[in-house]
Known about the structure:
single chain; about 260 residues; mainly beta; four-stranded antiparallel β-sheet; about 0% helix; globular
Amino acid sequence: LHGHTDWVIATATWGPWLVTGSFDGTARVWDEDDRLKAELKGHKTGICCLLVHNDRLYTGSDDSTIRMWDKDMALVRTFEGHEDAVYALTVWQARITSCSKDSTIKTWSDDGAVIQTLQPGDTALYCMAVKDGVLYCGGYDGSIFVYDGSGTMVKQMQGHEGVVFSLCVHGDLVLSGSGDKTIRMWDDSHTEKGQMLGHKGPISALLVHEGIVFSASYDKSIRMWSAEGELVLKLPGPDTKVLSLGMSRGRLVSSSADS
Length: 259
């Protein structure tokens, strides 16, 4: 799919549609035949992350805002409160939750008001995952901050030697991908259980589908791993950095730095 004029940094599935978010400041919605259905404009700078929740699309941007869109492609609301780029969005405790370069995690009401602000440290926050009501958030300093349902930080998991760019849940484990070129596996006691090694560049994205782990990297490759963490297959990627992974109608979708 072509059309963006800058790096495509995020993908999401919105009902039957695929959504791509780009540093060009737009989100593009593609229909079932992979044709452009809509181009969502409004952010002043690049889009960093996407989330679909309750039939609404949320776009987080380098302009420090989050925008909510309905299925008529209309802007419903703008969420303002962060002081720097919004790098990730998820749903935690039934609330839209964001993390930012401004070192904070925020939860939001449906009308766009900040409910809670958490600041685990002084490091930019890049990614999140939720497992059994527990929030995991990866930081620039290589830490993974763990919050229970009450908003209390219960652990700061350490081990990575680079930015934690991606987190995902895999069965009983949480997986983290980092600028140190490793994927690490963490159990419910927040202990590292092993590593998936092989990428030659930073790990930009992780995805689990039907028990298979997919990883994307700046080394221009996508790799498949077994449930136990063994390399199954190295897939040919584009001739540039692979930035995100998604599933759309049974297909693995990747986005890259070639727009």
